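#lab-general

N.A. 3:47 PM
ok so I finally got the sequence cleaned up, no stray characters, all 226 residues accounted for. can someone with queue access submit it? mine expired

B.Y. 3:52 PM
send it over

N.A. 3:53 PM
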Amino acid sequence: MSQKITARDILEAGCGTGRWLAELQSPTRGVRGLDLSPGMLRQAREIHGARALTCGRATQLPFPNASFDLIFCVNAVHHFGDPRAFVAEARRLLRPGGALAAINVDPHSRRDRWYIYDYFDGTLEADLRRFPSSGAMRDWMIGAGFERVERNIVERVMEQRIGRDVLNDHFLQKGGTSQLALLGDAEYAAGIERIESAVRGAESRGETITFTADISFVMLTGLLES
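B.Y. 4:20 PM
back already:
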């Protein structure tokens, strides 16, 4: 991604521990990160050294108008509380010719397959509430004044776990994904038991059971005229 970035001033909203900030940093580029979590920002400094980091809300970005050429967020927009307000704020901060890029999953498309949704009650429904659809994001960008909005699949994660190997999947740990971290202990334990029961049943029948993850990450890019 960093090879394609020509913007001079860049802001990552929801930067977390600063992985993308570190990749984008260069002597000719001003890169800033914003996150609501002081703990995440502290980790960003510890991991990547001194950075231009700001603690604040993505829905009330604490910067002057027309401060940036690119604003982006990666797997974060569903944490912002009011994604539509974030889109409007991003538009305010962008200069002519600037761009807003938001990368996230879109469970509303119903194209993805993920065994987590199959075995843990309520996880899909929770994601449908948490994650805005690509269509909604597109409408918000157009409504905020972006002249052109593009949709692209930037990554597709495809993994299969066979039989008991699924129990070694680090994403299956309680804190491995936000979907499972949001579950209560009893709900999480019930999902694990469903998986273990499915494995035992397949083994007793001499069958192979496959647990599939096929998830696309979608980037919505709103572009402004120069």
